[in-house]
Amino acid sequence: MKAIRCKKFGPPSSLVLEDVDNLNPKAKEVLVEVKACGLNFPDTLIIQGLYQFKPELPFTPGSDVAGIVKEVGEGVSHLKVGQEVFGFVAHGGLAEEVLIPSNACFPKPPQMDFPIAASFLMAYGTSYHALKDRGNLSKGETLLVLGASGGVGLAAVELGKLMGAKVIAAASTHEKLALCKEYGADETINYTSQDLKASIKEFTGGKGVDVIYDPVGGTYSEPAFRGIARNGRYLVVGFAAGDIPKIPLNLPLLKEAAIVGVFWGAFAMKDSKANMQNTMTLMKWHAEGKLKPHIHAIYNLKDTATALEEMTDRKVRGKLIVTI
């Protein structure tokens, strides 16, 4: 089968497309013929060796997949050969076939095409787990989303509004913020031209925001935290800016605020029943037309490096999809 391979850590241009051995499912694994793979910002980090986890070289990147079941391993009863599915893996999705743990592979709803299904689990799963399970976001509270036009950020904007919050979206361009408005943002902040802390205070009447969703890190984290409300929750989702920030610990003390880590991948694997419940809720909302993934562009497998370069250059709004 053909697969994108990372043979040495480096930029997207260092990736190669080559033939590799076909796969065979072990117990509680599902072999899936990949039709689409969604790209996520961690993909740009993992190929450079900058992610928290480094797969052994060589490896195939890609986590969000949708396709057709080719074979099931021993102990898999909820899926059958020929069934359309979507799921997630630590890596391996940018290939013609992928092995998915059975507890991370779900029947694809008929109203989802393969690109939509491949754009869904990681973005919405991460954001819903963050807002519901880690942030305890309540109706009437105020939510600030940093990096709000990206895959997980836009999902957080959409979900925050659906959950009854007032949503403030922060991003770097007018075009990105316009998309956030389309997805429900009540207020927007361009943090390249506006003072982040001052804008937060202005939009909240000096109170501050109740929940901050931060997949960006870098220089935006501390000024955002300085705009948090008393008893606020700061959700650490990722570090798309590249730098892991250092927050002065007197700030959470003075605000009686919490810094809360969000690691959806670990949650999904270690608490699969709770993740299944979240996934069922998300699929229900999608079926009802309440969630509409925004696909920025669709690339062919051979053009994966170009797609990842577009993501690295911060040009993407919503999701990038690779079709196989």
Folded structure, characterized:
The chain has 324 residues and is α/β, with parallel strands linked by helices. Helices cover 30% and strands 26% of the residues. Strands 3, 4, 5, 6, 7, 14 and 15 form a seven-stranded mixed β-sheet that branches. Strands 10-9-8-11-12-13 form a six-stranded parallel β-sheet, with helices on both faces. α5 (174-182) links the parallel β9 and β10. α3 crosses α4 (151-162) and α9 packs across α10 (272-287). The radius of gyration is 19 Å and the shape is globular. It starts with a strand and ends with a strand. The model has no long low-confidence stretch (mean pLDDT 95).
Summarize the topology.
Elements: E1 2-5, E2 16-19, E3 29-39, H1 41-46, E4 64-72, E5 84-88, E6 97-101, E7 105-107, H2 114-118, H3 121-134, E8 142-145, H4 151-162, E9 166-171, H5 174-182, E10 187-190, H6 196-203, E11 209-214, H7 221-225, E12 228-236, H8 250-255, E13 258-261, H9 264-270, H10 272-287, E14 295-300, H11 304-312, E15 319-323
Parallel strand pairs: 8-9, 8-11, 9-10, 11-12, 12-13, 14-15
Antiparallel strand pairs: 1-2, 3-4, 3-6, 3-15, 4-5, 5-7
Helix pairs in contact: 3-4, 3-10, 9-10
Q: What's a concise summary of this model?
A:
This protein is of the alpha/beta class and 324 residues long. It is built from eleven helices and 15 strands.
Spans of at least 5 consecutive residues with low confidence: none
Please tally the helical runs, counting DSSP H or I stretches of 4 or more residues.
11
Strand percent estimate = 25-35%
Could you give the distance between the termini?
Answer: 11 Å
